Amino acid sequence: MKKRSAIINLDIKDYMIDGKELFVIDGLFINKEIQVIYDDVISKPYFRTECDSKSDPYPVFASEFDITKANSIFDAKISLMTKRCFPDEQFIVGRSYVNHIVYGDMEFPHTDCREPKKNVTALCFVNKKWDYRWGGETKFFDKKKEIVQSVVPRPGRLVLFRGAILHCATVQTRICKESRLTWAIKMVDKKSVGNGHKSTFEILETENHAV
């Protein structure tokens, strides 16, 4: 693990899981920006449509964003960090959505793409407050199905990782009265688009989604 901080209040930790990159980024959003993002996502309509796989019988609430309409605060900083963490690669946004998990939901380990694809997922925790005792961590597994990283959902924290890393959202504890809100952007390796695929949606539609 390396710890880098080239910008005031920006803290980037990077890890490798079976040769695949994982970045945990804090300090990217100031408190006012977190409030604006939270107000945006909490006002959206949510439907129980999001599953970890096609066989998942327990969908969670989710709400889609129109990827043709950029969110000025959020998307610009996600793009900046993606370019910084993966400087030699180019990606196309295939999907942008928010998961709205409540106590009693069920989540399963899954990947967002299959190897050897090099897609990247940007996952941002967008609650305006969170107590570590509430749980809700995102866990990352190695090939032996061992948990090798567990990321607490701190407000405004961004996680960038290869979609082929096995991971799982955990449901908040009983004492938590808040919904667990995560904004996910699924990015497809630009080299994959046009290589026998008609669109980024066609690439993503057979992959797993919930994070």
Key phrases:
211 residues; 33% strand; nine-stranded antiparallel beta sheet; 3 helices; alpha+beta; globular
Q: Can you walk through the features of this model?
A:
The chain is α+β, with helices and mostly antiparallel strands and 211 residues long. 15% of the residues lie in helices and 33% in strands. It contains three helices and twelve strands, in the order βββαββαβββββββα. The strands form two sheets. A nine-stranded antiparallel sheet has the order 1-2-3-10-7-12-6-5-4. The protein has a three-stranded antiparallel sheet with strand order 9-8-11, with no helix packed on it. The radius of gyration is 16 Å and the shape is globular. It starts with a strand and ends in a 7-residue tail after the last helix. The relative contact order is 0.23. Residues 197-206 have low confidence and may be disordered.
Arithmetic mean pLDDT:
89
Radius of gyration over alpha carbons?
16 Å
Question: Strand portion, in percent?
Answer: 25-35%
Strand order of the largest sheet: 1-2-3-10-7-12-6-5-4
State the shape: globular
Summed up, the helix count is 3
Helix content range: 10-25%
- Beta strand count: 12
Low-confidence stretches: 197-206
Helix-strand makeup class: alpha+beta
Pattern of helices and strands: EEEHEEHEEEEEEEH
Major beta sheet summary: 9 strands, antiparallel
End-to-end CA span: 23 Å
